[in-house]
Amino acid sequence: MQIIREIKKISGKKITIDLPDNFSAEEVEIIIMPCKKVLHVHDENAWKKDFLSISQWQIEEDDIKIKSWPIEEF
Predict the structure, then answer these.
(1) For residues 6 and 64, what is the distance between their CA atoms, to the nearest angstrom?
(2) What is the chain's mean pLDDT, rounded?
């Protein structure tokens, strides 16, 4: 499967995608999602900030306890 992922600027309600010469698909699925910002490769900690911004959970103390069961005596 060939996949192309690009971040593009919208120009007058249009987006242009240039496909490489070796792209062989005749039909594609296009998914358009708003992009908050592009992470720069030179910022080594940018991925951590991005990850932490979407991975915050509210966990109650009871949610992380594992209930045990009594061990049967023989």
Answers:
(1) 39
(2) 77
